[in-house]
Amino acid sequence: MKRWGVVFFVLLLIQNQGILKPVEAEDGFVKTRGLQLVLNGIPYYANGFNAYWLMYVATDPSQRDKISSAFQEATQHGLSIARTWAFSDGGYRPLQSSPGSYNEQTFQGLDFAISEAKKHGIKLILSLMNNYENFGGRKQYVEWARSQGQSIKSEDDFYTNSVVKDFYRNHIKTVLTRTNSLTGVAYKDEPTIMAWELMNEPRCTSDSSGKTIQAWITEMASYLKSIDGNHLLEVGLEGFYGASKQQTNPKYFQVGTDFIANNQIPGIDFATVHSYPDQWLSGSSYEDQVSFLNNWVNDHIQDAQNILKKPILFAEFGRSLKESGYTTNQRDQIFTTVYSAIYSSARGGGAAVGGLFWQLLAEGMDSFQDGYGIVLSESSSTVSLISEQSQRLIKIRKMHARLRNIEKWKRAREIRRAQWWSGNKVNDTGN
């Protein structure tokens, strides 16, 4: 009877703690543990996508079905991370029309995107600024400062001018402390948000030493973390190296960032890499571009694992079909190269945790097509590759979940066994 009592106790514990579930609920905050992202105590490997347009499109309530459709199709293909913009500075449909002045309708568009992601179990990476002038970016910030009498020499003064930095800090605070009008949850308390990104592809070409961006990241990472201790933070880097490993970069790509130094800054939780050999080596053969990509991906995985000792996410990659002669087969080879490296690393407990292709579009979004866009409902060999990668990473997560559940079962059994022996000893002594 005592033996069966132990079995019943363990089974009850399993049922109550959900140990038999293959993967635990997706509603917690994503954290880091060594080389891994972790969700509810289980290593989190995930396939994902970029959809910069979510807030922009959702600003118009009549177009919000596109967000819902995109998320639904994404989950059907096993995708569970989306990266998007939490900025739009000046111009059309701005989030921030002038320094500190925010458009409530646009903010509600971002509220909707977050609430829909939550419904579909998709984690979000929200980028807070653009290096480029699309949607405002650094250029808009320095123009605002000029209009207030600041002496601005170039867009690179974004990183050093005190007034501009105040603008940016205010944007961080405004977004992080925003209360979602649909869920009632402040962004900084919303577990659907996986991470913040300081800037999309920061560059500072006027200072190739890297000191300017290094100081800016250090300052802004500390400020953001002082407001929000729940979420992960990454820089938004493309992955270019500093002078110590410049030979790894594409030729002429010394842009003031350093993959190693920038990601070693306190407060930066995981590294990111972007991969566009079709742009960076546009004059090279397709074979040379694939060879470069293979080395680029593997070098960054090894450096994240051995030097940074942090997880690495391939946050942008793809190949445009816009140029003459570019084929779906070539795009598939790019996806295969990135996906294979990620899977090989993840399967062995390495630093690579996932990849986000550029970019996901919903049906009826032809005006957003930049040559890289993929509509999941349109069957193609690339869509098949995406689904296959999702399933491979999900299997790794399930394996870790099972191993964790076995450890829970063993601990419960050992505790009960110790209690049983303790009780018998008391009975044997006649007490």
In angstroms, what separates the terminal alpha carbons?
22 Å
- Low-confidence runs (pLDDT<50, min 5 residues)? 1-25
Q: What is the number of beta strands?
A: 13
Note the total helix count. Answer: 12
Global morphology: globular
Q: What is the radius of gyration? A: 24 Å
Main beta sheet: strand number and arrangement?
8 strands, parallel
Structural class: alpha/beta
- Could you estimate the helical fraction of the residues in percent? 40-55%
Q: H/E series, N to C?
A: HEEEEHHEEEHEHHEHEHEHHEHEH
What amount of the residues lies in strands?
5-15%
Mean pLDDT: 91
Arrangement of strands in the largest sheet: 10-9-8-5-4-13-12-11
Pfam families: GH5_mannosidase
Keywords: Glycosidase, Hydrolase, Signal
Protein name: mannan endo-1,4-beta-mannosidase
Enzyme class: hydrolase
Key phrases:
alpha/beta; eight-stranded parallel beta sheet; 45% helix; 13% strand; disordered N terminus
